[in-house]
UniProtKB/TrEMBL annotation:
InterPro entries: Cyt_P450 (IPR001128), Cyt_P450_B (IPR002397), Cyt_P450_CS (IPR017972), Cyt_P450_sf (IPR036396). It comes from Streptomyces lasiicapitis. Residues 179-198 have a biased composition (Gly residues). Residues 172-199, 407-424 are annotated as: Disordered. CDD domains: P450_EryK-like. The lineage of its organism: Bacteria, Bacillati, Actinomycetota, Actinomycetes, Kitasatosporales. The keyword Magnesium does not apply. Keywords: Heme, Iron, Metal-binding, Monooxygenase, Oxidoreductase. It comes from the Bacteria. Belongs to the cytochrome P450 family. This is Cytochrome P450.
Length: 424
């Protein structure tokens, strides 16, 4: 296959060539039969429709985020405080307010010069090669370094953070639709062990990982108690909820959530946007003429290739959803990637149309759990992609070395994205 022959192929077809997981039928341009459907094999309800997903996100009283007791009733007792994604009101509101005070728009905006410098530094290291492996060269090291520096943990521990991410989201894991297994934390997503059939070994491994991550943060938090610094960890150590400091476990849980949520999804966002532009040279040309269109390109990439595909909730009472009666105590998998292609909301849902107006995608969720890091992810996307495209105007995929998507059905993003940087 030549580069030219790859050009006009729509993303829905490319999804096959890139090895998109079977479960992601929407990536192949297929609409779900029903917006809400019970999955016998996984023992949960798949929510594919946009209005239905928004309804669930918006009603934490009927749909709890504390899903572990429903998904893994035999899971050992564990410390839940600090796991924002698994909390319901009122506890969620308190920690979210605290997080908002520590993670201010001003703090995020102040990171721009550092993100800019880091992007150049990382691209400099790959200069002269004529090729980039986007994930290793930029899309992973940039966000992980930014969040590590923000928290105040050594960026040189990057290999360790990557190992943790891969334990949480194994690259090759493929399970039945809706039945993927997760960890007791995870991205800002479900925040819960996912799937109802999580094996004992997997749950034990997840708890062991949480323990190791908490030990790591406990050491750094201790250091900040003795020697405060200008970092997020110090702010969290000093922060109070209702006059009380965060417990060590809560602090560890929250810090690990930020670390993991703070990079893996942004890594995918960067790769996915490059893939969208590569498959749509006309959009790329428009962007070259009008670089101010980059934010709209990023929003459309988030809609079309939603990085984190699935979030979990459980019903606290009997509900009606998408024409189905769902009893209390049931687990729901909200497939945001599918909802973001719901033709009832998005015209031409499988087309890449930057600037579509409105574009109310739910890649960052909706409601009280709306992604805390969305402003940072958007800032990193705008700066890193702006610099990348400016430095490498001829950037394109390599027909002899095509991208490979993550095989994990919870995620959509490239595992490897080899690119040619030199002109043809
Ligand atoms: C929550 C997606 C980047 C931190 C969420 C949720 C989504 C999401 C969908 C809602 C989860 C739910 O309702 O259960 C994304 C995507 C990102 C991204 C697609 C990048 C493209 C980040 C970054 C950070 C972050 C950079 C931190 C620096 C969080 C946190 C929550 C969250 C702490 C939990 C909020 C809460 O439960 O109140 N994210 N995220 N995310 N995200 Fe992100």
């Amino acid at each position: 296959m030549t580069y030219q022959s790859l050009r006009p192929v729509p993303l829905s077809v490319l999804a096959d060539q890139w090895g998109a997981p079977e479960a992601h039928f929407w990536l192949r341009g297929i609409a779900p039969e029903r917006p809400v459907a019970f999955d016998e094999q996984a023992g949960l309800w798949n929510v594919y429709g946009y209005p239905e997903a928004v309804e669930v996100f918006s009603d934490p009283a009927a749909y709890t985020s504390d899903t572990v007791p429903y998904i893994a009733p035999d899971a050992p007792e564990y410390e839940k405080s600090g796991l924002l994604t698994q909390m319901d009101p009122p506890a969620h509101r308190q920690l979210r307010q605290l997080a908002g005070r520590a993670f201010t728009p001003r703090l995020v905006a102040g990171l721009a010069p550092r993100i800019c410098a880091l992007t150049h530094e990382l691209l400099d290291q790959a200069d002269g090669r004529g090729t980039l492996e986007l994930v290793d060269d930029l899309a992973h090291p940039l966000p992980v370094t930014v969040i590590a520096e923000l928290l105040g943990v050594p960026a040189s521990d990057r290999p360790l953070f990557r190992q943790w991410s891969e334990e949480i989201f194994p690259r090759e894991k493929v399970t039945a639709r809706g039945g993927s297994a997760g960890t007791a934390d995870g991205d800002g997503g479900s925040g819960g062990a996912s799937g109802t059939d999580g094996g004992g070994d997997e749950i034990a491994a997840a708890f062991d990982l949480v323990r190791r991550m908490n030990e790591y943060f406990a050491v750094h938090a201790d250091d900040r108690r003795r020697q405060p610094r200008e970092d997020l960890l110090t702010r969290l150590v000093q922060a109070e909820v209702d006059g009380e400091r965060l417990s060590e476990a809560a602090l560890g849980n929250f810090a690990q959530l930020l670390l993991v949520a703070g990079h893996i999804t942004t890594t995918m966002l960067l790769g996915n946007t490059v893939l969208c532009l590569d498959a749509h040279p006309e959009r790329r040309a428009e962007l070259r003429r009008d670089p101010a269109a980059l934010p709209a390109v990023i929003e459309e990439s988030l809609r079309l290739l939603t990085p984190f595909e699935v979030f979990y909730r459980a019903t606290t009472r009997d509900v009606e959803l998408g024409g189905q009666r769902v009893p209390a105590g049931q687990v729901l998998a909200l497939w945001t990637g599918a909802a973001n292609r719901d033709e009832r909301v998005f015209a031409g849902p499988h087309d890449f149309v930057p600037g579509r107006d409105p574009n109310p995608h739910i890649a960052f969720g909706r409601g009280i759990h709306f992604c805390l890091g969305a402003p940072l992810a958007r800032l990193e996307g705008r700066i890193a992609l702006g610099i990348l495209l400016e430095r490498h105007p001829e950037l394109r995929t390599d027909p002899d070395n095509p991208p490979v998507l993550m095989a994990n059905p919870e995620l959509t993003g490239p595992r490897t994205l080899p690119l040619l940087t030199a002109g043809r």
